[in-house]
């Protein structure tokens, strides 16, 4: 098993005292620096906060079946990009362990689990949902941008037996997405809602498989709602 120390990452450090963390996972074929730069290009500034550290890890390079086995930076393998495909669980589960080490680094630095958000774009959002709803149900929340879970996802099966409060889900999806269809995101949201997840789904007309300014501004507001700045006495 690869250790998280081998998982390269770039970070946007808080301007003030670090009291919360966001782990933001890129989409397939991208990198941590790549999505950090993409966000900066759209916002005209970094996704930065006074008290929140934003971590952009890079997925290890591995053979990726939808690319005919070509090497790509992906969080897990897929048999195909489709909601009706089985999950490639071995690769999903092994990466959940690697990313758990990254979460442990934050808690070891004094950040409580309920002050950590997990999320990502496309494949990164799916990875975050597996990570949070199967292994880390005590994090502050999950965000998934242009993402979906397979119809037979193990996430749904494991949540059927859940008897605890679950992290809130913030989802965004472009209605013009031709890679990860808008209805796949809607179905994911509906299934999770039916299993007890408090969730919100935000649709963006004319948005393809991409990020947008309005979406990132809404995400930023949601992050601040879930991870408000705390006074020194409350820490």
UniProtKB/TrEMBL annotation:
InterPro entries, A to Z: AB_hydrolase_fold, LYPA1-2/EST-like, PLipase/COase/thioEstase
Pfam family, one: Abhydrolase_2
Enzyme class, UniProt record, top EC level: hydrolase
Domain of life: Eukaryota
Places the protein is found: Cytoplasm, Cytosol
Keywords, in A-Z order: Acetylation, Cytoplasm, Hydrolase
Catalytic activity of the protein: S-hexadecanoyl-L-cysteinyl-[protein] + H2O = L-cysteinyl-[protein] + hexadecanoate + H(+)
Gene Ontology cellular component terms for the protein in this record: cytosol
Domain Phospholipase/carboxylesterase/thioesterase: 10-224
A molecular function GO annotation: carboxylic ester hydrolase activity
EC number: 3.1.2.22
Main location (coarse class): cytoplasm
Reported function: Palmitoyl thioesterase that catalyzes depalmitoylation of CGAS and KCNMA1. Acts as a regulator of innate immunity by mediating depalmitoylation of CGAS, thereby preventing CGAS homodimerization and cyclic GMP-AMP synthase activity. Does not exhibit phospholipase nor triacylglycerol lipase activity, able to hydrolyze only short chain substrates due to its shallow active site.
Family, per entry: Belongs to the AB hydrolase superfamily. AB hydrolase 2 family.
Record's protein name: Lysophospholipase-like protein 1
Species whose genome carries this gene: Engystomops pustulosus
Lineage: Eukaryota, Metazoa, Chordata, Craniata, Vertebrata
